[in-house]
Amino acid sequence: MSADVENMLCNILRTEEFSLQVDESTLPQNEALLLAYVRFIKEGKLVQELLFAKELLTDTRGESIFRTVEDFFKEKEIPLTNVIAVATDGAPSMLARHRGFLSYLKEKVPDLQA
């Protein structure tokens, strides 16, 4: 059933613009978890859904976070250009000017609101 819900959500994201919220957390065993939520308008109402929760296998640098997001989008065939806005927790790995998650994403989506 969860695969059906994910598939329905990805079908929407393939054709609609949406905002993305990304947060990285460190778990007690020193594991890093990346959470991604999306917000979009459906039938005139604001909808928020968990897109994924993925373990960061190498580190929590901006490039690793971006690659995790980009790989998910490629796998699900969701265009990165459908992302119109991004919210993060403000950590350096997210916001660093040259190596933060946002800098990598803005290379692919120059008109992104952050």
How many distinct folded domains? 1
Q: Which secondary-structure class do the elements indicate?
A: alpha+beta
End-to-end gap = 33 Å
Rg measurement, Å = 14 Å
Please tell me the overall pLDDT: 90
How many helical elements?
Answer: 4
Q: Name the beta content range.
A: 25-35%
- Please give the largest β-sheet: 4 strands, mixed
State the name of the first-level CATH class.
Alpha Beta
CATH fold descriptor: Nucleotidyltransferase, domain 5
Shape: globular
Describe the secondary structure blueprint for this structure.
Layout: H1 2-15, E1 18-26, E2 32-42, E3 45-56, H2 62-76, E4 83-87, H3 92-95, H4 101-108
Parallel strand pairs: 1-4
Antiparallel strand pairs: 1-2, 2-3
Characterise the protein shown here:
It comes from Trichuris suis (pig whipworm). The protein starts with a helix and ends in a 6-residue tail after the last helix. It is 36% helix and 32% strand. 21% of the residues are buried. With 114 residues, it is an alpha+beta fold. The chain has one domain: Nucleotidyltransferase, domain 5, CATH 3.30.420. The longest helix has 15 residues, at 62-76. The model has no long low-confidence stretch (mean pLDDT 90). The protein is built from four helices and four strands; from the N terminus they run αβββαβαα. It has a four-stranded mixed beta sheet with strand order 3-2-1-4. Helix 2 (62-76) packs across helix 4 (101-108). A hairpin with a 2-residue loop joins strand 2 and strand 3.
